[in-house]
Design brief:
heterodimer; A: alpha/beta; Rossmann fold; globular; B: alpha/beta; 2 domains; four-stranded parallel β-sheet; three-stranded antiparallel β-sheet; 8 helices; 19% strand; binds iron/sulfur cluster
Chain lengths: 145, 223
């Protein structure tokens, strides 16, 4: 049973795909699921934010996540030169497609950060949860494919 | 390559409404190169369509498959199994691919998922520009390797229209270089400006779309 079902009430599920290089050096990269403060955050560490593929982001939403937060390094600080800009451009295009299909562009967003703690990552998940609050649960939740 | 771009998703949704199960078919050749119809695009468009249909309250199963080329019968045949399980096809290949599928599987509607726009080159990452209009009587040998048919907004054959912008861009589209300016510059760089004064033979337009549908026959290759 998922954390969402256990609670018996809607808790936004936010998938956080983050670049490991955004973290404070030496901390354990958050992974797995953290249910707290009325949301469920699912962490996916990546070697660079440019690893996000449009198809992966769309599949995450198709499987019912309420929001997806991509976290990359600040502009000009990507360890792979411009990986974070590429990720940003993909996210921008996908947001316009999400608006076009009326699922809500706020379901996907990219933010930047450096020397982030696990608390700071969770705060980004909370920020996404607030942004999608007005949209209600993702209509794809529970749809069998 | 042949280039194409996705139709707006609401247009695709309206085509698919009323069907039970649809096969979304990609093509791994030209349209994959222009990031419109390859496997990656199938994998992105399928979830988008499922979500778009759901938000409209419509239930249509979207299956997916990408084949090497939709314009070759041998590759098209690979779809025969999957086709049995659906009641419509959405192809994101060029118009040739869409027509090949609808000819081979004529009992089903085959919808175009993209608009095929031109024969183009990838000029820069993320920028494709037209290079050829398949006019059937190539003049590149006389125009310093730059095509005035595909690249001049008016397909002028004898020089610029007079509206070229001072920065060398076309008067019709400020983002497109005036091809006649490019032809002039290349002729000048080669020291061959006088060639542009030469009277050229009349171009055979009857070999282009103006002459009706084209057909190419090679007896030596026929069975
Ligand atoms: S002249 Fe005709 S065949 Fe040659 S590049 Fe232009 S459109 Fe294509
Ligand atoms: S400005 Fe140049 S490319 Fe544009 S229509 Fe005139 S001649 Fe053609």
């Amino acid at each position: 049973m998922s954390a969402v079902e256990k609670q018996g009430e809607y808790q936004p599920e936010i998938v956080v795909l983050y670049c490991r290089n955004c973290l404070t050096p030496g901390i354990d990269p958050p992974s797995g699921v953290l249910a707290a403060g009325g949301i469920v955050a699912k962490y996916v560490p990546m070697p660079c934010s440019s690893k996000v593929e449009p198809s992966h982001l769309m599949k995450i939403l198709e499987r019912g996540a309420d929001g997806v937060e991509v976290v990359g390094c600040p502009d000009g600080q990507c360890g792979f030169l411009d990986g974070n800009r590429r990720a940003d451009k993909r996210v921008t295009r996908l947001r316009s497609l999400l608006a076009e299909i009326k699922l809500g562009e706020e379901r996907l967003c990219m933010n930047r950060g450096t020397r982030l703690t696990s608390e700071a990552l969770f705060a980004l998940a909370q920020k996404r949860a607030r942004a999608v609050a007005g949209l209600g649960p993702n209509p794809m939740k529970g749809v069998n494919r | 390559m042949i280039i194409a771009e996705w139709k707006p998703i609401p247009e695709l949704v309206s085509m698919l409404k009323g069907h039970k199960s649809v096969l979304l078919v990609g093509c791994a050749t030209c349209v994959a190169e222009c990031a419109a119809g390859g496997e990656r695009e199938v994998e992105t468009l399928a979830p988008l369509l499922r979500m778009a249909l759901k938000t409209e309250g419509v239930s249509v199963e979207i299956k997916r498959k990408t084949i090497e080329r939709q314009c070759e019968w041998e590759f098209v045949e690979a779809l025969a199994g999957e086709i049995e399980e659906v009641d419509a096809v959405l192809s994101i290949a060029c118009g040739i691919g869409v027509q090949a599928l609808s000819e081979r599987f004529a009992h089903l509607p085959v919808y175009p998922g993209v608009n095929t726009t031109s024969l183009a080159i990838r000029e820069q990452p993320g920028l494709w520009t037209a290079r050829c209009a398949a006019c059937g009587d190539c003049v590149l040998g006389e125009t310093f390797g730059l095509c005035p048919v595909a690249r001049c907004a008016k397909s002028l054959m004898n020089g610029p229209c007079g509206g070229t912008r001072h920065n060398g861009m076309c008067e019709v589209d400020e983002n497109v270089e005036c091809v006649w300016n490019l032809i002039y510059e290349r002729a000048k760089a080669r020291g061959e400006l006088q060639k542009l004064y030469e009277v050229r033979r009349a171009k055979n337009w009857s070999n282009s779309a103006h002459g009706g549908p084209k057909r190419m026959l090679r007896e030596d290759l026929r069975p």
